[in-house]
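batch_manifest entry 22 of 60
target: Cytochrome-c peroxidase
source organism: Nisaea acidiphila
requested by: lab member K.T.
priority: normal
notes from requester: please return tokens only, no post-processing; we will run our own comparison against the previous entry in this batch. if the run fails, retry once and flag.
--- input ---
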Amino acid sequence: MEEAQGMFEPIPSVVPAVKDNAVTHEKVELGKMLFFEPRLSSSHLISCNTCHNLGMGGDDNLETSIGHGWAKGPRNAPTVLNAVFNIAQFWDGRAEDLKAQAKGPIQAGVEMNNKPHAVEVTLNSMPEYRERFARAFPGEDKPVTFDNLAKAIEAFEATLITPASRFDQYLEGNDPVLTAEEKEGLRLFMDKGCAGCHAGRNLGGEGYFPFGVMEKPGADILPPNDQGRFQVTQTADDSYVFRAGPLRNIALTAPYFHSGMVWELRQAVAVMGESQLGEKLSDKEIDLITTFLHTLTGEQPRVEYPILPVSTPETPLPQEMVAQ
Ligand code: HEC
Ligand code: HEC
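--- output ---
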């Protein structure tokens, strides 16, 4: 337990502060509406919750996400739960924080396919949004902006944390809360070296490593066309480098890896053993580590579905979405 306490941190039960963005009640409520708001997409069909379903672990449980015009994106959707604790956002860390991140999907052609100005026009067309932005961003002349939208979504996402997993109860000193097998799994997770990359509060999400430090997985798991952080830094060293996946709630968020090619957690553990540690783990070891990973499921945030304002004659109409 002491060793684990030195490596991992429990998820706090209070909403964390975020940089340059006070998390106020007004902002959180507005951010929640925006998270569920399909009119942020040009088709009026796709919301953040479409791909980050808060009833399903904060992701879509698809291999890779499906967005505008049924376009299949290149990567698996990570969960938004506890994302506030990651060092940076996306599999390659290309967004510095959640407010920078939120602007991406709205504009991505394969996701929500919209433009910042069109989003502002849409939000301005509904009096309730105008009032709510004014209350969330008091004193601003023109509060309904794309930047403020991103800040409100970030504030809401800061509330999407999952405290009180059994593992966290253990870290807080409750020894009998884990079974002997789960503790053995934890011991293996630390001794084998998984925790070298998956530590801290999110058991990952803190550093970047080659996928295949010891042995590169096959193209079925690591497709050659996605070079990860190399696309962000253009440094050869960063070829096939990805952020170590945060493992909180991992039992809820299959399929696994940025390619979403692995559906079973056991198999993901086996792949990690070979690719990251250069070790073929025994079936027994894989079972024990997987059993431990199940203790990382925390209390899911209870989100009351927001009632969204009705469109007005000024609200732009949905754009036709042609299958691509
Ligand atoms: C069409 C599906 C889709 C939609 C819609 C979508 N996302 Fe995502 N989201 C993804 C995918 C796929 C990724 C990973 C992309 C990557 O790493 O390159 C992602 C990544 C993220 C991350 C990073 C999490 C992490 O651990 O790195 C956050 C946070 C997030 N999305 C929030 C949002 C918000 C907020 C919205 C609405 C404004 C949104 N997403 C809309 C599919 C979607
Ligand atoms: C050298 C660093 C490193 C080590 C050691 C390591 N991992 Fe990983 N892990 C990563 C990286 C990087 C990823 C993201 C891979 C990708 O691009 O999909 C990852 C992804 C994962 C995922 C999938 C996460 C998701 O959301 O899909 C699981 C599960 C996982 N690791 C478990 C383990 C286990 C269990 C061990 C020990 C047997 C381990 N890892 C050892 C770096 C590491």
